[in-house]
Amino acid sequence: MQLLCFIILFLATFPPSSSSSLSFDFYTLSCPVVELTVKNTVRSASDVDPTIPGKLLRLLFHDCFVNGCDASVLLQGNATERSDPANQSLGGFSVIDSAKRVLEIFCPGTVSCADILALAARDAVEFTGGPNIQIPTGRKDGRISMAANVRPNIIDTSFTLDEMIKIFSAKGLSIDDLVTLSGAHTIGRSHCGSFNDRFKVDSNGNLTLIDLSLDRQYATQLMKMCPNNNNDRVTVNNDPSSPLQFDNAYFKILLAHKGLFQSDSALLNDERTKNRVVEFANSQDSFFERWSSSFLKLSSVGVKTGGEGEIRQSCSMSNT
């Protein structure tokens, strides 16, 4: 109770920051409890549901790649980003909403949903064994969310390397960032429909590999886990070896030709990216070091600051 009274008194003493750009101390005076609140919310949700970290990390990708890191993917309604079929399998929304509700009690009208999402994804990585990263805050929430903007801006699992490079480059991200951030697939699960075009099964159960870069034994395992009439509901681990641990196993899996998606295998099959895959497979420290840099860039893509956006009262709807 004494701590709660201190926090309320502290917040009443210092008004919200009026900074118009991202900074590492943006909420130091206006809401010093923000990072601890988000971290505790992510931890509590992940303890109940171990798939939460992967969902939060994917949610950030889908937000930042479409209209920048402005929490526009959180907005509900007809023809919003969230309503697009490509985003129907997204999860983790309730975690962001929970953190927002708590922060609205301690720091009303101060912390953006965009910042909460970026911090939650950062914490999801740390919670599952990844590096602890400091990221700046001060993002504003966008007011516009259009389903039509989703497909031209996100990576499809069947993309070639050139197609992925084009999307990443448009966001100010390099080929190295592409390889590094693909390491996010070391946690999380995916629906069968996102990869079962890499093989086909005839009426007798015989397997034919369409994508010959996929290990045949692994393809057989996937086939058994993905019955043809259940592809929209069944999910499998992105990383079959350590699915709940953020580590460099994803890159080891690529070397074994067991990348779940065609877009994963593309990283190994091209000289522009292969060496980095090998490097990360051999050194988790190297991957973590590079991840810290690339994640910082990702979480800063197209951010809105100052008067460019708003601080939503609810993450699922605009204030106006």
UniProtKB/TrEMBL annotation:
It is an enzyme of class 1 (oxidoreductase). Ca(2+) 1 binds at residues 63, 66, 68, 70, 72, 81. Belongs to the peroxidase family. Classical plant (class III) peroxidase subfamily. The keyword Glycoprotein applies. Its cofactor is Ca(2+); heme b. GO terms for molecular function: heme binding; lactoperoxidase activity; metal ion binding; peroxidase activity. Disulfide bonds join 31-107, 64-69, 113-315, 192-226. Binds 2 calcium ions per subunit. Ca(2+) 2 binds at residues 186, 239, 247. Its EC number is 1.11.1.7. It catalyses: 2 a phenolic donor + H2O2 = 2 a phenolic radical donor + 2 H2O. It holds the Pfam family peroxidase. This is Peroxidase. Residues 21-319 form the Plant heme peroxidase family profile domain. It comes from Erythranthe guttata. It is found in: Secreted. Residues 1-19 form the signal peptide.
